[in-house]
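retry 2 of 3: previous attempt timed out while embedding fe (ii) ion. Reduced batch size to 1 and resubmitted. Inputs unchanged:
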Amino acid sequence: MNGIDYSQKIPNNVNLSEDKTLQRALEHWQPNYLAWWQDMGPDGSHGFDVYLRTATSVDPAGWAQFDYVKMPEYRWGIFLNQREEGRRIHFGDHKGEEVWQDVPGEHRANLRRIIVTQGDTEPASVEQQRHLGLTAPSMYDLRNLFQVNVEEGRHLWAMVYLLHRHFGRDGREEAEALLERRSGDEDNPRILGAFNERTPDWLAFFMFTYFTDRDGKFQLCALAESGFDPLARTTKFMLTEEAHHMFVGESGVSRAIQRTCEVMNELKTDDPALVRAAGAIDLPTIQRYLNFHYSVTIDLFGADQSSNAAIFYSAGLKGRFEESKRDDDHVLRGGMYRVLEVQDGKLVEKEVPMLNALNEVLRDDFIRDSVAGVERWNKVITKAGLPHRLTVPHKAFNRRIGTLAGVHVSPDGRVVSEAEWNANETKWLPSVEDRAFVASLMGRVVERNKYASWIAPPMVGINRQPIDFEYIRFN
Ligand SMILES: [Fe+2]
Ligand SMILES: [Fe+2]
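retry 2 succeeded.
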């Protein structure tokens, strides 16, 4: 069955009504989820009618139906891609065996950990972004923020379904805990570091959706290869939603850059102080935000050498990005991969067994993908006739996880002393003063087709609507 049953309390395409115990358990979790949304979802927005897409089926015709919805009434549901008959595990030690429809006992703990870790990021980002609606740069952007938020909520549902359906009592407890942890809470934080950072302003939001939602894409792509078929099917559908989140980030940063370039050309200057005085964000500040979000995000891939990564792969739980397009044996025993380490004060590459380096493999895939978008941002600058360029910092810059956590590395990849780091930190990463300046630009602009001073209008509207469309009715 492809279509989604909306007559149910919980919209789903998994025949939930045929499993009464599971249905009752999820219907018991649902009010707790809604209470979490009321508390921790977008601030002060519960009464707005928002032009949102909702999935009515997982096929191309149905997954993006647009209409006005009050967000607390959004139909969060459980949607898995259709089962592929005869699908087989195509990597690791179980290669060639039929995929699992249930969790194999020996992989239960690892699968639970993978699902909980993924699930935890979803409500975390909603919490991180909950105040941004108060300072939206336009009605169009506010709608995009809310779209991202409701879909992250749905991604939580996707993971909670797996926990309830396949992990019994432990799964139900984990599902409750997903509503109890809080981003940035000292006593009960979210699991991963980047999801406890604040997203204090819209430049941070756009960088987050560009870089950190892209981490989501790569994690989901790796899980879409999983031998645990329900996980593969649910993550495949999540990926269709994720693309819009990255679009929001890429186009948002691009529009900020475009506005900055306009100001630089109008004033014939690249002096940050003059650009700032004209109400735009100077390119060096954009570069520092980029450095921050990029480095924090690449930490999310985990330690460069990890025996867990090897276990997850060999067991068939988590593949590589585009596993089936690679022409190796998909078992990887004996394969080698280069990782970085510091020797005599210098970064050097060393070869390690590839199975242990799979976090690094995924990180490098991510890096290639994110660099491409930064080049598209540079095209905006080139088109404006300006010589400036944005770059991603060296992958050893500002790392907190793995071998590189203990060293200071400059954005251009030199190992530097503590003193040099301290002397340059505010040139390389957003300073308190940068953040205060960006915050000072964040006023709420929500009249139709009006935009804050620091951002250009979008090129096109959502769902082929004009850019001056009434994306939100405030009532
Ligand atoms: Fe997500
Ligand atoms: Fe996302």
